[in-house]
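Suppose you are handed a protein chain with no further information: no name, no annotation, nothing but its sequence. What can you learn? This example shows the usual starting point.
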Amino acid sequence: MHEKGLDKNEVLNSLGKKLEEDASFKSGRILGSMCSEPHRISEKIFSITFQKNLGDEYVFPSISKIEHDAISSIGSMLSNKDAVGHIVSGGTEANITALWVARKLKGGRKKEVILSESAHFSFERASDILGLKLVKIPLTRDFTIDVSKVRKSINRNTLAIVGVAGSTGFGTVDPIQALSDISLENDLYLHVDAAFGGFVLPFLKELGLYKSQFDFAVPGVSSVTIDPHKMGLAPIPAGCILFRESSLLSKITLNASYIGRAGQNFTTMSCTRPSTPTVAVWAIMKTLGRSGYRSMVKRCIDNTLMLAKDIRRLNGVKLMLEPKMNIVSFTCSQLSNKILFEKLERKGWVLSIFPTHLRVVVMPHVKKKHLKAFVSDLSDVLENNR
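A reasonable first move is to predict its three-dimensional structure. Written in structure tokens, the prediction is:
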């Protein structure tokens, strides 16, 4: 820190230069991110809410009411208008909170959590923080959790099962109904991580492109993670944790007696919380409505299917599976995934690389022209090995 403060314009110019190294959503070349350019209404929301603390209902009562309204809307989208929960920092905090509640609810000696090998790494965080043991189940040929192995893994120490609705690497959805049946039979907590799929699957269903149930429509589901800052077009950070009923959230309630007239109950990990993401989630859902999200998801899926078709035509490239949502996973027989990734990176593409494949996430900022340019560069790399 300088002894004397710098001129505001000097600071902003310096900041601008520093930010030049970042990739831009507007370029359409960010193909590896599960986030996108937030809805433009977010800019206005930032300017009028940045000073408000969602964690202080006494000073800012309107914000908690807005959060409640947003949660109700998301709950209705996930088949439960009476769901309770919060807008939090992201899927990681949401998943940790879910297993925190599971441990408080089931408690005792039960410390094992069953989940698939493709589950998000945030569960490693949850395991470390909460003192839990993760029991990872192999994937089937369709890259979902092997239900038969889930049944065989249950013992007296099993606390919970995690199902994934929109896996990070493949965009696949675990058989949530089957996991629900197992959970109910064995009195286990079932959490669904729909961080990515939560704002995709309901609209795919409305488009007739998804038939199964993944949310609170499945009776054994106790909680759901969904990230508005992914396909919800909200600004970061805006994750969300929803519980089927208030009795679950009450397991982690803590009262701060000094706030307001009668104290304030906290049911989140963070007590001081930014208001802007929550208000933005509320405003964006109001602005787009179901029809707006449905149209956006359709565009993304149409672009995804086009990309998959174009990639399928290339020699030496193999799709890992037919896309289940707006994610295309592929591998190459001519080059290692690492080398292919590096060559495409040198051409300006920002992808994701996994141990077994490369991944493209067709987010709203990615247009057909960007995908055509990507396939052209991919073809060039394969043909000329440069």
